[in-house]
C-alpha cells in the first residue's frame, strides 16, 4: 500500500460535523478514513457523470444504422436471456 500523504487544512464546521458523523455511524474509524470515504464517493459520482456524458455523446454521434444494429442485438439478447443458465 502506498504511503499516506499528510494533509493539513481547515474545513467548515458543517464539513467537520459530516466527517464526525461518518465515524459515529461506524463507516470510518477516524477523520482520515472519513475523508478517504468522501473522496471515494466523489470519484464514483464523477466517474458516473463522465460515463453518462460519454454515452450521451456516443448516441448523439452514432449513425442510425449503428443504433439499429445495437437495438437488434439488445432485442436478441433479451429474447434469449431466459435461456441462459449461469450455473453451468
Architecture overview:
- This protein is an all-alpha fold.
- The protein has one domain.
- It has three helices and no strands.
- α1 (13-24) crosses α2 (31-61).
- The two termini are 37 Å apart.
Structural shape: elongated
Percent helix, as a range, is 55-70%
Overall pLDDT score? 92
**Helix/strand/pairing class, anyone?**
mainly alpha
Cα-atom Rg, whole angstroms?
A: 22 Å
Helix tally? 3
Q: Whole-Å distance between the termini?
A: 37 Å
Low-confidence stretches: none
Our estimate of the beta-strand percent is under 5%
The profile of the biggest β sheet is: none
Summarize this structure as a short list of keywords or feature phrases:
about 90 residues, mainly alpha, about 70% helix, elongated
Concise synopsis of the structure shown:
The protein is mostly helical and 88 residues long.
Helix-strand blueprint:
Blueprint: H1 13-24, H2 31-61, H3 64-80
Helix pairs in contact: 1-2
